[in-house]
Amino acid sequence: MDLFVQAAKAGSSAACLELGRAYLFGIGLPHCAAAALHWLDRAAVGGVVEAQFMIASLALQGHTNSPSQNWFENASGAKAGAADYPMALRWVEQAASSGHAPSQALLGFILTSGPPALRDVRRGDDCYRRAADAGCAHGQLGWSLALLRADPVANADDARSLLTEAARADLPIAHYLLGVLAGRDSPASEAAPEMAAHFLAGARLGHAPSQLACGLSLLHGDGVRPDAFQGESWIRRAALAGEVEAFAALGKLYGQSAGGAADTTSPLPPNFAEAMLWFGRASASGHMGAACALARLHLQNVGAGADRGEALRLLRGAAELGDQAACDELAAVVLANRSIASSAGHDESRAILAWFRERATQGDPAAAYNVGVCCVAGIGMAANDAEALPWFRIAAEHLPIAQYSCGLMLVEGRGAAQDLVAGRRLLLQASEQGLPEAEALAGEMLLNGRGGPADLGTAKILFRQAAEGGHAGALYALGLMALGYYQEPEDPQAARVFLRRAAEQGHAGAMAALAARYPARDRCPAAVQPQAIDAGASRELTLELL
């Protein structure tokens, strides 16, 4: 180093380059970016192409030559600043003009991916092409991307050939792109081993997206033997490297059985604390899907720190940014909980109604149904059954729940004059799709001959179907019929089974019937007066609209 210093002071640009490299990489001297830049700058001014290239590279990493910097303070750990694209462009253009292939590749990067004011994509692609022709791996990578951008189908083979050469030089993103291309161009079963091999190669080279893809392949056994431990480990490495999609993937991995029985296909047991941690990091990084998933965990009250208020805050934030899934989640929470609906701000309620109206006018039947629900519940507007009914009619062309809601309103004369015939027809349509509420109410109308002739046999079938779905009113109806009502043969044992099942769900009529007809051991508490199955008791066979 003494000799290099003497030569550098004597004006040797080559010696300045060696001193710059020594300070930059800590070879025989303390690592110091400021000292490295000092000597590299002298070498670059002297026309050393490699020094010009190195200064440009350092400028893109936020290292710029500042005379005010103390070399050894910088060596102690001063952080790099923002990338200096103009400085990088100035130096790399000089190096590229000398035919230096790595500089041509770097110039291609600045011209195609740098700040908009500096971009010249056509010239940048030409720089990539020349670097690739010279055998530069980064040039091959850049030119392959340019080809895919121009025509991903016609240029696929040429791009794959270039990426293969770049992968041989251990460029991890080349391996990653080869894996992506393999999955795009071949059937999944045939491409999986090749994809997994490329993703693993990129992962081992420290490429975070490759680590995520490799981890997912191992978790699901795509092209490799399933290994949940190794898969989670690779995804965690990607997450620790700051890969936002890896945050979300870990959250999903650990929280996928939330709100129900454990997912038997899950490779790892649920860990809601981990799920909330990683979903939280992804959400803080702007991942809207993770925000919705974290909100669901809060609403399901799983894991420590579950907070309904935090769930609503997350959903509101994502919804305000235009995330449609968040809009749907927030609206569902508000619609399902009257206390939240009543406490929701007027602007928020109106926004929920506006989301549904917009999608309904675009032909979304579920949105049309939800507009109707908002009209009934008074969310975003004054409650108005008459305005709700047309929206339910629109949705009823596709959705059984809308057929039921529309039929119920017509049967009860809400929003329009009572029309038992039309209401019964809609309820029977919804019954054909297996909706227990519709089956129960349609059964009552057929039993009592409302809206058309009585049909005891079909009514009984509908009651049984609704009872299989757990409908308490249908169980009560079957119980009364088994007691001999409606000229049915009496079956006390079957009646007791039906009535007990209804009473266990809190059905008052079933409790009363048990108290009146059976010994104390077969009763349920809080017995009241028996109720008949008639028009006045039709609500016993239905659920509230919301």
User: Helix and strand succession?
Assistant: HHHHHHHHHHHHHHHHHHHHHHHHHHHHHH
Report the strand count.
0
By helix and strand content, what is the structural category? mainly alpha
The first-to-last residue Cα distance is 81 Å
Number of helices: 30
Largest sheet: none
Quote the beta fraction. Answer: under 5%
Helix content: 55-70%
Shape: elongated
Determine the oligomeric state from the structure.
Answer: single chain
* Arithmetic mean of pLDDT: 84
What is this entry, summarized?
The chain has 546 residues and is mainly α.
Describe the structure.
This protein is mostly helical. It has helices at 2-9, 13-25, 33-45, 49-60, 71-75, 85-96, 101-113, 121-133, 137-150, 156-168, 172-185, 188-204, 208-220, 228-240, 244-255, 272-284, 288-299, 308-320, 324-336, 338-343, 346-361, 365-377, 385-396, 400-412, 420-432, 436-448, 456-468, 472-482, 492-504, 508-517. The longest helix is centred in the middle third of the chain and has 17 residues, at 188-204. Mean pLDDT is 84; it is low at 257-265 and 523-546.
Summary keywords:
about 550 residues, mainly alpha, about 0% strand, elongated, disordered C terminus
SSE order and pairing:
Elements: H1 2-9, H2 13-25, H3 33-45, H4 49-60, H5 71-75, H6 85-96, H7 101-113, H8 121-133, H9 137-150, H10 156-168, H11 172-185, H12 188-204, H13 208-220, H14 228-240, H15 244-255, H16 272-284, H17 288-299, H18 308-320, H19 324-336, H20 338-343, H21 346-361, H22 365-377, H23 385-396, H24 400-412, H25 420-432, H26 436-448, H27 456-468, H28 472-482, H29 492-504, H30 508-517
Helix pairs in contact: 1-2, 2-3, 3-4, 4-6, 6-7, 7-8, 7-9, 8-9, 9-10, 10-11, 11-12, 12-13, 13-14, 14-15, 15-16, 15-17, 16-17, 17-18, 18-19, 21-22, 22-23, 23-24, 24-25, 25-26, 26-27, 27-28, 28-29, 29-30
